[in-house]
């Protein structure tokens, strides 16, 4: 006669557990590198968006302070979180804003390896227009 307490209990064999663990390990090995690249891309987009917002807010800061404002690369990089190593910011001339909030305009270059991005800071409004190009084509 069967024991009524053990009638509904069935387990997995060691082989079945090993097969499931092997499949989980394989799927993690495929997914993890893609997830890592995705997280890096999100982080890069984040600090670039922060930088763009910071640049576009400079005319308002100059207007509110009532004094002219000059910004160089070091000031732009202050407080940026998540900037990728090897990313270089270049300004041909410092960004200048009048006490009335009008921008003189300028160009900011972001380089990471072979990828180059050029941001045009428009005169008067200080709006940032992004132009992407491959540095090898220049």
Polypeptide structure, described:
With 138 residues, the protein is an alpha+beta fold. The protein has one domain: minor pseudopilin epsh fold (3-Layer(bab) Sandwich). It is built from three helices and six strands. The chain is elongated, with a radius of gyration of 27 Å. The termini are far apart.
Oligomer: single chain
CATH class identity: Alpha Beta
Based on helices, strands and strand pairing, what is the structural class?
Answer: alpha+beta
| Mean pLDDT over all positions | 84
Radius of gyration: 27 Å
CATH topology: minor pseudopilin epsh fold
In the CATH hierarchy, what is the architecture at level 2?
A: 3-Layer(bab) Sandwich
Instruction: Report the β-strand fraction as a percent range.
Output: 15-25%
Spatially, the strands of the biggest sheet line up as 2-4-5-6
Helix content: 40-55%
Q: What is the count of helical runs?
A: 3
Shape category: elongated
Largest sheet descriptor = 4 strands, antiparallel
Number of strands: 6
Number of domains: 1
Which spans of ≥5 residues are poorly predicted at pLDDT below 50? none
In short:
The protein is 41% helix and 23% strand. The chain has 3 helices and 6 strands.
Set down the secondary structure blueprint:
Elements: H1 14-56, H2 58-65, E1 69-71, H3 73-77, E2 87-91, E3 95-97, E4 106-112, E5 115-121, E6 128-134
Antiparallel strand pairs: 1-3, 2-4, 4-5, 5-6
